[in-house]
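pipeline/complex-builder :: batch 7 item 3
reading input block
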Amino acid sequence: MKSDRRLKDSNREKRIYAFRTIVALLFVTLLVGALVFRLYHLQVVNHQYFQTLSDKNRMQLQSIAPTRGLIYDRNGILLADNQPVFSVAIIPEYSEAIEITIQQISSIINISEDQISRFKKRLKRSRRPFQAVILRSKLSEQEIAQIEVRRHELPGVKVQAELARHYPMASDTAHSIGYVGRINEKDLSEVDEQNYSATNYIGKLGVERFYENELHGRVGFQTIETNASNRVLRVLDRTSPVPGLDLTLHMDSKLQHKAVELLGGRRGAVVAIEPETGGILSLVSTPSFDPNAFVTGIDYKSYGELRDSLDLPLFNRALRGQYPPGSTIKPIIGLGGLESKVATREFSIWDEGKYQLKNDERIYRDWKRQGHGRINLSSAIAQSCDIYFYDLAFKLGVDGMSKYLGYFGFGKNMALDISDAREGILPTRDWKRALKGRTWYPGDSLNMGIGQGFMLATPLQLATAVSLIANRGEWKTPSLLKSVSSELGGSEGLVRSRQVDHSDIKLNNQDNLDFIIQAMTEVMHGKRGSARGSGRNAKYRMAGKTGTAQVVGIKQGEKYDAEALKERHRDHALFVGFAPVNEPKIAVAVIVENGGGGSRAAAPIARALFDEWLLVLNKQDQVGGSQ
Amino acid sequence: MSQDFLRQMPGAENHFQKSSGLAYKLHLDPVLLGLLLLLCGVGLAILYSASGQSAVHVEKQLVRYGLAFFVMFLFAQLDPIIYKRWSPWLYLVGVLALVGVLLFGIGAKGAQRWLQLPGLPRFQPSEFMKLVVPMMVAWFLSSRYLPPSFKAVMGALVLIILPVLLIVKQPDLGTSILIAASGIFVLMFAGLSWRLVAGFTVLVASFAPLYWMFFMREYQKQRVLTFLDPESDPLGAGWNIIQSKTAIGSGGVWGKGWLEGTQSQLNFLPESHTDFIIAVCAEEFGFVGVVALLFLYVLIVFRGLFIAVKAQDSYGRILAGSLVLTFFMYVFVNIGMVSGILPVVGVPLPLVSYGGTSAVTLMAAFGVLMSIHTHRKMLSR
């Protein structure tokens, strides 16, 4: 304690203190200098960098999905519209533990294992940051409320509304309108990704797919300002989306529904065409499915049931079912005979129910065991005599038959706006050599002459052909689309269509076609016409041709089931026809798989459709004044 | 040399005469009072913006300022001799209170800082120690021969380290650093030899790793790590510092304008009305605005140092100097941490950050300063 006893030296203390104050001033100045330097560095030197960071914090470029164009039938009845659907979604960036969040949500509302596994799949796919991943769609109002009430416990969870496609006619139009589904990576690779940056749905099938470009519209953009919790505060800049075009189809929803009713759940297809325009009035394949289930995503179980059903509801028979056309092509073979002068109107044969080629032991039989007796071209068509057409087929040969069948659109997809239709098979010598490695035998021609053998056609092709007959050879390319419209007015020039290369049929003698049509009228109204039962008591005259195709069977890997197999070995019933004969308004092709004879199973459906169209719907049209 | 310095202080002698009017009778220093009022006014303007234009926050802060100025006024009335006499007793009470905090303290977020004694309002003893530690060290040294001997220095260090350790245990790193600094500043002003300064610096530097290993809590270590590399955890611990740097940097030279700061108004900046309020100022008023605010602080510090130099006895001198420098340390540590040159320790920006406790303590210190300035014995002149 020696130093403490020293006398305090006040002056020395002051001196030291003054010096220390100067040091303190320097110290303060130095530290302030450091701060100023730091602030200068942040605010002046790196200002631009931090300005960008700050802008990125608050401003986001958002794309806005355009509203998908609506689809109407010819009378303005909605076939596809957009309805709000509520779904619960998770924004992964905001959810701390997704597993726990899912558990929490499933304790509030019902969520299946299937939905969870599909959510995880979607989660793995590449997506935009802060984009919500949908866990479950189609929430009820009660479910929305239950989630909203507990939202504060569920970070990153949101209930979002979106417009989802809705098909009011459900299964009736599944095979014609098709459906939209959630867009996937493969879809995205086929479209302009930027234009689809806000779009959730894309046309997967049918009209929805073919006219995807027209229906979709153009994406809009907006720059929005958000706060730290990503709440949108205001829109800084906006380019509105351009909604998709509205489509009006030739289809008549009532006729469409009538056709579905008439098929009555049997496996079959109906295609009806307006000959004057080529417009497709109805396009039905049954059994069908509910396309609405596919929009927001169908669950595995329901999809499995559809996929594995023996009746193939997912299979579009009208466009992709390829059947032996049977006797329905006889009018065209007959026309070919007349035009190429291997047949005349008067020429007749004596039919005993058998036909044999020279140097061939095989006996070709008529469907009528005892034969039709004396028979000419007209009665051969009316009674669907096979023997007459064996003879004609032999005379005309494969080349002649293929040529005339080709005129009527067989062997090609002739529809303007249906891209997934199959082409069937129009056999030629070259075709057989290339595919089967064998030459064409005369016997092949005989089979082809009655629509059996190698030839295959789709219901759409049959309808197209009969429509061309009804139109007296004047070609009208079949199409679903009647017109497009938008808020800006029509823009038909922009609408997509397939390249269809076809022209009117040039006949040596136009009377030949009239003669064939007369024979087809006999089918319906003649004393011995094969479909006279369906032509009876009509207020108008109609023309048609029945067909009965032996089953080759659509390859479908069915399980062996004796009872079902027996039923499935029955013949397919076919019918083509149009009405009224002189001023055709409607041409149809009907097929009922394993329905037995065409006259019994298929023709009545056509008759009912004629009645509906000519007597019920068209009448209404006139009263209603539309068109 | 000291004489020269005094002569160079502009108007030092004149000023003393001028201030011997009403303000002097009320024991207030008008210059310091004016600067403090100006700072509080600026602070309220920034707070209004930083709190999301909340009038409630501004009103509450206004009440706290009122209380703080009242405390300052009270403290200014007491003669420094009273502070000197009471220093050891206050220190004793403070240390006991800190022990009490560790034993029965209450608090939140894993730190217990408050003491609730029956019949008394809840209070924070560490806040009290911000004033008492420098008082105690000044009392201890001023009665001895200055510059202090080695033994005196060691004694003073013990007086400093005891409460600091107790506060570290709470844990409250920011406050303990500031209190340690305030004690050391007293030593420095008392004339601590530069050789010892160098020696202690080396000692502290070598102690740092031990401190890291044995005393720091996990969240404190995290703060330091985050400070060293904020981008390592941009959404977690690094978020605050990234957002505050973004706010400061995006302000540029002139700022985005009052109430126009996007970082603060859109809630990107966390703690925008408390510890990080300087970022709001920097964003809205730019480089020019922050430097002006810094200048205001520097003026207060300079005025404080001037008062200290003019003090009559060594107790008043070294205590005043230490209080002023501690005030400056608040400013430096706060702006340093918000701008990313210091780790984040919970130190508010004096008289601008929202909150009452620190404002009251700070104004009490200025009250002591004014007391030292205005209670003069004529004989010394």
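note: Chain A touches chain B through 52 residues (CB under 8 Å).
queue -> next item
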